[in-house]
């Protein structure tokens, strides 16, 4: 590979950093990938991208370029020696490529995030919107590819990089959930394109495998479960701590003050009732069939609360 003085700040699982790596590989540009810890951002990252403080950042001969789409276009404009063009040469085709990249970035990708975080009752309507978006992308693929393997034709182009860089995550999420985002029967062009893109050497050498994504997602889900449990236990504990002083006050308050105090107690009990329904799943205890942490915390007060 040619060139020197090129560094990329990113993480291996970032689709945005992967875009930059793929573009540099297509241009046969040698570069140093400097892995960043986003939970403890390095001085180099903060200095290189002081506005957004995020990856990726391309450092070329000491000059910093930020934002993945801007970086990919910079790479295409800067390294022209090997004859490979990421964006089409025709002005109209370039505009079309930028349009579909912007559509994916601004409309479709946020919709996927919304779908992944949606409640079960919200998913049907969101899936319809996702399917509509896939229909648009299928039409775009047919027009842009002209029967070839990629949006860019015979070779990976701008739209391929922008959309394809997210399919490591998308494929892994689909396998874990047992559902496919792209179905051959509905979008045959995109279905074949995903395999072609992910199996291309310039992509395989950059993006983690599906198994690696699944392993990371499993760890992320486990951490999220622990955080939710910790937050829930804290909320129940706080609710109990709010109820206890009210019960003490009720014991000593004069008759005329009890009505208002009972109303406050009833308000404090409501979230605890909701918590019991969610946690017990129709069983005897917060912990289900057996006494658990929440039962112990709440139950230990019930003896003197019952009067």
UniProtKB/TrEMBL annotation:
<dbReference type="InterPro" id="IPR036249">
    <property type="entry name" value="Thioredoxin-like_sf"/>
</dbReference>
<dbReference type="InterPro" id="IPR004045">
    <property type="entry name" value="Glutathione_S-Trfase_N"/>
</dbReference>
<dbReference type="GO" id="GO:0006749">
    <property type="term" value="P:glutathione metabolic process"/>
</dbReference>
<dbReference type="GO" id="GO:0004364">
    <property type="term" value="F:glutathione transferase activity"/>
</dbReference>
<dbReference type="Pfam" id="PF00043">
    <property type="entry name" value="GST_C"/>
</dbReference>
<dbReference type="InterPro" id="IPR036282">
    <property type="entry name" value="Glutathione-S-Trfase_C_sf"/>
</dbReference>
<dbReference type="Pfam" id="PF02798">
    <property type="entry name" value="GST_N"/>
</dbReference>
<dbReference type="InterPro" id="IPR004046">
    <property type="entry name" value="GST_C"/>
</dbReference>
<dbReference type="InterPro" id="IPR040079">
    <property type="entry name" value="Glutathione_S-Trfase"/>
</dbReference>
<keyword id="KW-0808">Transferase</keyword>
<comment type="similarity">
    <text>Belongs to the GST superfamily. Tau family.</text>
</comment>
<keyword id="KW-0216">Detoxification</keyword>
<feature type="domain" description="GST C-terminal">
    <location>
        <begin position="90"/>
        <end position="226"/>
    </location>
</feature>
<dbReference type="InterPro" id="IPR045073">
    <property type="entry name" value="Omega/Tau-like"/>
</dbReference>
<dbReference type="InterPro" id="IPR010987">
    <property type="entry name" value="Glutathione-S-Trfase_C-like"/>
</dbReference>
<dbReference type="GO" id="GO:0009407">
    <property type="term" value="P:toxin catabolic process"/>
</dbReference>
<dbReference type="InterPro" id="IPR045074">
    <property type="entry name" value="GST_C_Tau"/>
</dbReference>
<feature type="domain" description="GST N-terminal">
    <location>
        <begin position="4"/>
        <end position="83"/>
    </location>
</feature>
<protein>
    <recommendedName>
        <fullName>glutathione transferase</fullName>
        <ecNumber>2.5.1.18</ecNumber>
    </recommendedName>
</protein>
<dbReference type="GO" id="GO:0005737">
    <property type="term" value="C:cytoplasm"/>
</dbReference>
